[in-house]
Design goal:
This protein is α/β, with parallel strands linked by helices and about 300 residues long. It is built from nine helices and twelve strands. The chain folds into three domains: about 5-85, Winged helix-like DNA-binding domain superfamily/Winged helix DNA-binding domain (Arc Repressor Mutant, subunit A), CATH 1.10.10.10; about 90-165 and about 270-295, 3-Layer(aba) Sandwich (D-Maltodextrin-Binding Protein, domain 2); about 170-270, D-Maltodextrin-Binding Protein, domain 2 (3-Layer(aba) Sandwich). It has a five-stranded mixed beta sheet, with helices on both faces. A three-stranded antiparallel beta sheet has the order 10-7-11, with helices on one face. The radius of gyration is 32 Å and the shape is rod-shaped. One of its GO terms (molecular function) is DNA binding.
């Protein structure tokens, strides 16, 4: 049995007339009668009682008609789903990101516009370390990743890294901290004796190394007293007076009233955000990547 047989039967059942049903189907009557007879032979039951004057559904025909409607509706739905996925209008996208990335203007704008444009596409967003994101791309658990790295990241073959934005680094500290009320912005050397609160090493890969490298150029190793996995905890501990931290200005919207952000007076004190994507990603993921790239302007 094929779907066309169900459609033939439905047309005849709706018209109760082979001639009119054949006209709707754009075919002649004899082949239609033959196909209905073939359907009945396959089922081993009579669906239509035929006389010289009329066509009537049998009890089996009435029940079969209801099920035929359901089957055809489900088949049409399956076709719509397949076409929607092919056009990037349906499906899901698995995206990895590092802490603070959703707060960046580029990513936040892209997420909002993509969601509004393709509400039927599910965005699965997972906070992951940089190492986990690269592994996720290679194992096809995610299609797009967002990482921070001051220099172009070295990625395995089959992956592409695209620069999204560069931001200056700022020092987050209590509003009454001496560096907060100083007449000039602090430099890396001014942080020599401070207690640092940083992201845990696996979540701060790329960011932490750059900051530690800047401190090394200034002649010291930063004293890291706390390590965290997320931006809320990071700034919360600073607000509690446990130390200072170095972040990007995108986290400025999160800071409590008792904190202040001061730019780091160093041309190398910057952070760059990169999008990494696999080759051969889904149409929906490719569309989302286009939204991200468009948000850079």
């Amino acid at each position: 049995m094929e779907l066309r047989h169900l459609r033939y039967f439905v047309h005849v059942a709706e018209e109760l007339h082979f001639g009119r049903a054949a006209a709707r189907l754009g075919m002649s009557q004899p082949p239609l009668s033959q196909q209905i007879r073939l359907l009945e032979d396959q089922l081993g039951v009579v669906l239509l009682e035929r006389t010289s004057r009329r066509v009537v559904l049998t009890e089996a025909g009435r029940l079969f008609l209801a099920e035929a409607y359901k089957t055809l509706e489900q088949a049409d739905h399956a076709i719509d789903v397949a076409r929607g996925v092919g056009k990037g209008e349906l499906g899901e996208i698995n995206v990895g990101f590092m802490p603070s990335v959703p707060f960046t203007t580029v990513v936040a704008k892209a997420l909002s516009k993509f969601r509004a444009s393709y509400p039927a596409v599910r965005l699965n967003l997972t906070e992951m370390s940089r190492t986990a994101q690269i592994e996720g791309l290679l194992t096809e658990k995610i299609e797009i990743a967002f990482i921070r790295n001051v220099y172009p990241p070295v990625v395995p073959e089959g992956l592409e890294a695209i620069l999204l934005m560069a931001e200056p680094l700022v020092v987050a500290m209590l509003a009454n901290h001496p560096l907060a009320i100083a007449s000039s912005d602090p430099c890396i050397a001014d942080l020599r004796n401070e207690d640092f609160i940083l992201y845990r090493s696996d979540f701060g890969v790329g960011f932490n190394e750059h900051l530690i490298g800047l401190c090394a150029l200034a002649g010291y190793v930063p004293k890291v007293t706390q390590e965290v996995t997320g931006p809320f905890t990071l700034l919360g501990l600073v607000s509690a007076g446990l130390g200072i931290t170095v972040v990007t200005p995108t986290l400025g919207a999160l800071h409590p009233d008792n904190m202040i952000f001061r730019p780091l007076d160093d041309p190398e004190a910057i952070s760059r955000l990169w999008m990494i994507r696999r080759r051969g990603i889904s149409k929906a993921a490719a569309r989302f990547a286009d939204f991200v790239l468009a948000a850079r302007t």
